[in-house]
Amino acid sequence: MKTEEAKRVLIVEDEIHIAEGLKLNLALQGYAAQIATSGTDAIDMWKRWRPDLIVLDLMLPGIDGLRVLQCIRLQDERIPILILSARVASSDRVKGLSYGADDYLPKPFNLDEFLLRVERLLTRAAWSGSNGADADARIPRLYVFGGNRINFERGLASCKQGEVRLTEQELKLLRLFVANRFKPLSREKLLAVGWGYTGKMTTRTVDNFMVRLRRYFEDNPRKPKYFRSLRSVGYVFEPDEE
Predict the structure, then answer these.
(1) Which residues of the chain register pLDDT less than 50?
(2) Domain topology for 142-237
(3) Residue 221, Cα to own-chain centre: how many angstroms?
(4) DSSP 153
(5) Distance between terminal CA atoms of the chain?
(6) Phi and psi (nearest 5°) for 228?
(7) Cα–Cα dist 27/214, whole Å
């Protein structure tokens, strides 16, 4: 198989000896593989390299694997994601699958079984792509609420201010709110998923963006109806969907 035709596999694993072993064995099967050793690097490489499949560890420095999974699923429902983790409890499996993973393989694992699962996930993804099915996407291309219209595909909003060209960061936040409407979102989660920040980062950045979203979409930004603050928690999006 020629390198340019090889399926791309992103290995997200901070134990370098495991990561290098997986990369070698995937290369022997004809795949092109790259390694990310942290959650932040994983998100960056996913955006830049556009892999066909992601092998994802859960225990990562910085952003953990579940947050990486959430971030990717907000923007891409199709890419197959295989969790490869030492967390073997059934609750961990359920959580990983409920967050959008396609498969879950506990460590230690059998190499032949791992390679078979990779092949199966890539084959299934290729078949789904050839059928062009996108009806299950959680983020619609056009979202309408309270007289406002957001075109995620074009990056435009029609609101009380007229037509607004949304920035990439505004689109990220709006995708997150639409996917989690009526669910409280903490400032920390908004920072982690929207910006890739973790730890003791300032949350003022989120508040400043919320001011802008309210100015776009609220009839009275000082008394917001849709993007509401929750004291000591964060924000919640409560739309009147049309």
Answers:
(1) 1-3, 130-137, 200
(2) Arc Repressor Mutant, subunit A (1.10.10)
(3) 29
(4) T
(5) 49
(6) -100, 145
(7) 49
